[in-house]
Hints:
Distance between the termini of chain A: 42 Å
Largest interface: A-B, 20 and 18 residues
Order of helices and strands of chain A: EHHEHHEHHEHEHHHH
Strand order of the largest sheet of chain A: 3-2-1-4-5
Shape of chain A: globular
Number of helices of chain B: 6
Structural class of chain A: alpha/beta
Oligomer: heterodimer
Radius of gyration of chain B: 15 Å
Shape of chain B: globular
Amino acid sequence: MNHRRIAIIDNSVLANLMDSQQMDLLEKLRIVFQNIFIPERVKDEFLNVSDSYIEQRQRFIDTVGFDRGFFRLCNTYEPIVLGMLKTQKGVDEGEAEAIAQAEKRQISLLLIDDKPCKKYIEEKYHHLTCLGTLSLIAILDLLELLETREKNLKKHYDNTPFKQGTLMEAYMDASKFLGIPLKKKVSFNKSKMTWR
Amino acid sequence: MNQSSPICVYICDLIQIMSKNITLFITYNPNNGDEQTLAVRLHTIGVANGLRMFLPDRFNSKRVLDIETKRRIDESDYFVLFSFTSKLSPIIDSEISYAWERFKDKSKIIIIYNARESKSLKSVSDNCTEIYFDPNTENIELVIHKIMTAVSRKEEKPKRTKELQEALLALLGIGLGLVVLNELSKE
C-alpha cells in the first residue's frame, strides 16, 4: 500500500525551485510524495516568463502529462468554486485553481509560498495544509536526502531571502508533516544560518 | 522561418487580437504522448496570447464524457483535434459526437490527421473540417490555406468570423509547425 501523499503545487514553489537551480530537489520529492499535480493555470503562469527562463521551464512542462508521470497536469474543478475563489483577496488565478482542484480531488496538501494566499487558506480552508519551498527542503533534510543541505539553503536564500525564524518554522512544519518529533535544540541548530 | 511568411503574419494577427473573446477546445488522444504534449503547448500559447482555451476534463473517466468537458465544448467557438494515430480512444469519439450535436456549424469541428496514418474517425465526421497533413512532405502554408477554405464556407457574421479565423489559423499554424519539428527530431 502506498502511504505517500498527493500534493498540488503552486507556481511560487515550482518557480522558486526551478529558478534557484534546484531541479534535483524536485526529483527527490518523488520519495516523499506519490504524485504532485500542476493545475493548468499554474502551468500557464509558470510558462509566462521572459526568454531567459522559458527554455528550461518549457522542457520541464513538456515532460508532464495529464495521465503519466510523477508530476501531472490537472484541470478538474467545480466552475462555481473556482469562480468564487477568483474573487477572493490575496488569491491569484493560479492559486484559485490550485485550491479548487484540491477541493474537487480531495487533496489536502498544497505546496505554496505566497503569504497572502497561505493566510487565506489557513482562515477559510482548515482541512488544507500548506507547505512552502523551505519546508520541502527541511523535509528532505530530516529524511537525510540532502547531501548538500547548506548549499541548497544558500541557493534558496539567494533566490528568495528568508529569516532564521522562517527557517525554524519550516523545520517545525516538516517535523509535523513527517510525524518525526524534533527537539527544540535540534531545530534551533538546524536553523542557524552560518552558511550565509 | 522567414519573417514575412504567412505563418509569421498569422502569429502577429494572434497577438493583435489578444482582447477578443475567442474560445477554443483542443483535445487529444489520451494514449498518445505527442498529441497530448502538442495540445498542452497550444493551450499555453493560446492562453498567453489572450485566447480562452479549454482542454478536456478526464479526471473521472477516460471513457465516459464528463459533464465539465461538455460545458467546455458548449462554451467553445471551435473544436480542434490533431489526430496522429489510427487507434482512436472512445472518449475522442464521444467528444466529437457531442460537439457535432452542439455546433450549428459543423465546419468548426477541425480534425487534422497525420496523412501517414489511416483515418481514425469512423463515426460522425460528416461536414466536419477534416485535413490530411504529412509533416514530412507537406507545406504548412498550403495546409493552413486548406483549413481556411474549409472553415470559410459558411459565414454568418463575416467580421467576427474573420477575427475568429485569424486567431484559429495562427494557432493551428503553430501546431503544424510543432508537428513538423517533432517529426524532424525523430529522424
